[in-house]
Amino acid sequence: MQCRINRIASWALLAGAMSTAAAAAPSQTPDAAAYREAVAQYRSGARERAIERVLSMTDIQLQRESDRLARRRLSEMTPGVWPDWTGDLRGAILLHTEAWSRQAPFRRAAPQNVHDQIARRLAAVLLSRTTETRRDELNAAREFVRDWHLLVVSQLHARLRIDESRPRLEEARRQFPRDARLLLASGADHEALSAASAGWLRLRTATGPRVSQERVNITRELQRASEFYRAALEVEPALEEARLRLGRVRYRLGDGERAHGDLTLVHTTTAVPVVKYLAAVFLALVEVDAARYERARELYAEASTAPWRHAALLGSSELAYRAGRPADAAGLVRDLLREDHDYDPWWHYIQGTAWHRDGLLHSLVERVRR
Amino acid sequence: MTRRAAGVALALLPACVWTAAVIPQERFRSTAEMVVVDVLVMDGRRVVTGLTAADFELFDSGVPQTIRELYLDELPMTVIMVLDTSGSVEGERLEALRRAALALFDRLRPGDRAAVMTFSHRLRMPEDVTPDVARLRTAVAALQAGGATALRDAAYAGLALTGAEAGRTLLLLFTDGVDTASLLDDERVLSMARHSSATVYAVATRELPDVKLWGPSAPPATDDRFVTSLAQQTGGRVMYAEGNRDIGPAFERVLAEFKSRYVLGYTPAGVSGRGWRPVDVRLTKRRGTVLARRGYFAE
């Protein structure tokens, strides 16, 4: 209780110091005040207003004020004025990332976006400054930056901007070389590109400068994906998404036996419905190729009991057709076409790490909430 | 120039199914198991019409067969329209697609039927197979676009639906994009196409959505290799639309060409056993290219 009282007292002192300092801070320009207000709004939960606010500022204003935040200008370093500097730094990183996301057009190359540049710089500052501080603070900061990298990559994957996510992942892996989540995301990046076709590359070439090859080397992309998934599992053997994806990639590489092992393991051990569903569907495809039709039928039947079943019905239909039951195959397709459920995990699986976007953003936002 | 056929085509249809649904009963009544081959004959870029059974020779597993029936533009047909309504179609292209579909419905004859299936990442069936053109028109008018592109899954689903249809079936596949969302791979879908009795015509755009870097000779922006293989397996063709305004004319060309095809019927003789049977259709008296299915699976 004494400890709590002390903490409240110290917060009261800080708040008092802040208001005094703010009142006695003639050096704070309107831009600086607006910028700090936007960060404060973001951290207090008024994210939309904060984003609108920074989107209305000029690039020069944003560069100058974020620079001020990064450098903690001595003029504003009066003790107590900026008590939660790293918190504001994190808030600003997310604020600029969300602003960048609003401005980044779908499927188009990102323009030289000031918000993206600022977010990256502030993340680097956060990592470098916290090396001087306590171990737990350092770990929290590192985890924050790691998750921020994952968020950015998930946003790029959601926009099918795979070519741009790759250098971001390389940058992240330089900072966190043995991080299982980043290794998983890197594998998903290669897996997503392996599904892209020549037409997609032409589209990207037309809309962005970075895709120079005319064709995706599918096998190479799948092999790289497999390497990353295996590396992720070495670091974190229980990472079931890595096991699921490894099984799928091995199947696509023609290694049905190992794919069967990976997918069976995930299917029998996972408690996550989405993972269970996908493991059943992927495993059924492996079983069909091995002519184990009865086992495939069981898996599809199990998957079809999930709240979503678009992919399961499609697979079931294909199995029926292979088994010489075209009328059943057509009936299952009609069932699928009548489905009004607007969700299937498969639709998200194929978008790399895009399905983690909302969860990551929510988690990060919670960590900067004041 | 040889008269040799460039390809072959065919569908194995139990006569009871075929006759019951579409063809005047007396035509195939005597057959136990009639094989029908849907054939297009071209001379260069021109479709050849006016041929008779005597103009064709047909080999089943290398064994010459007697063509018992030949139909030209007489049989009712079912058109399964499989339309790409992914995000890239949104806007002007969707309007052009609607107009093209509506114009095609206007050209259906009494006895013909059609269905409208759409795909983005998700497959939908706005209107199942029906002779009711008003229902089809309503379905097309309500189309909306958005999402990713599951081209292969859609092709599979369309083929599966045609498997339940008796008679001549045209699968008209429209796409302007590239596959980003299919569960099924090429081999699974193409294998199904080899089994299917439908003829696949694809209409694909060459123009990239919102991007006009290339002129009329631009490379296809679609999954051309897959789409071409799919059409070839069934004896169909790919028609390229150079822009939105060309979608309607492309649909018209598809329908006109489909109506110009010959349907050859024969009862296999001198061949036995289950499994794949290659079929070869050739012209006997004139030059030309025969587009047809390359064989069929005997059940």
- What's the CATH architecture of the largest domain in chain B? 3-Layer(aba) Sandwich
Helix % of chain A is over 70%
Mean pLDDT of chain A: 85
Mean pLDDT of chain B, nearest integer?
Answer: 83
CATH class of the largest domain in chain B: Alpha Beta
Main sheet of chain B, how many strands, which sense, barrel? 6 strands, antiparallel
Stretches with pLDDT under 50, minimum 5 residues of chain B: 1-32, 209-221
Compute the separation of the termini of chain A in Å: 22 Å
- Strand portion of chain A, in percent? under 5%
Shape of chain A: elongated
CATH H-level superfamily title of the largest domain in chain B = von Willebrand factor, type A domain
Helical region count of chain B? Answer: 8
Strand percentage of chain B: 25-35%
Characteristics:
heterodimer, A: 370 residues, mainly alpha, 19 helices, disordered N terminus, B: 299 residues, 2 domains, six-stranded mixed sheet, 8 helices, 27% helix
Describe this structure in words.
The complex is a heterodimer of chains A (370) and B (299). By secondary structure, chain A is mainly alpha-helical. Chain A contains 19 helices and no strands. Chain B has 2 domains: 100 residues, no CATH class; 183 residues, von Willebrand factor, type A domain (Rossmann fold), CATH 3.40.50.410. In chain B, the strands form 3 sheets. In chain B, strands 1, 2, 3, 6, 13 and 15 form a 6-stranded antiparallel β-sheet that branches. Chain B is globular, with a radius of gyration of 19 Å. The two termini of chain B are 37 Å apart. The interface between A and B is large, with 40 and 38 residues.
Any chance you could write out the topology, listing elements then pairs?
The complex is a heterodimer of chains A (370) and B (299).
Chain A: H1 2-23, H2 30-44, H3 47-55, H4 59-71, H5 85-103, H6 114-129, H7 135-158, H8 162-175, H9 180-194, H10 198-207, H11 218-235, H12 240-252, H13 256-269, H14 273-289, H15 293-303, H16 310-322, H17 326-338, H18 345-349, H19 357-368
Helix pairs in contact in A: 2-3, 2-4, 2-5, 3-5, 4-6, 5-6, 5-7, 5-19, 6-7, 7-8, 7-9, 7-19, 8-9, 9-11, 9-12, 11-12, 12-13, 12-14, 13-14, 14-15, 14-16, 15-16, 16-17
Chain B: E1 11-14, H1 15-21, H2 25-28, E2 33-43, E3 46-47, E4 56-60, E5 63-65, E6 69-72, E7 77-84, H3 92-106, E8 113-119, E9 123-130, H4 133-141, H5 151-163, E10 168-175, H6 186-195, E11 199-205, H7 224-233, E12 238-241, H8 247-259, E13 262-266, E14 275-283, E15 289-292, E16 295-298
Parallel strand pairs in B: 7-8, 7-10, 10-11, 11-12
Antiparallel strand pairs in B: 1-2, 2-3, 2-13, 2-15, 4-5, 4-14, 6-13, 8-9, 14-16
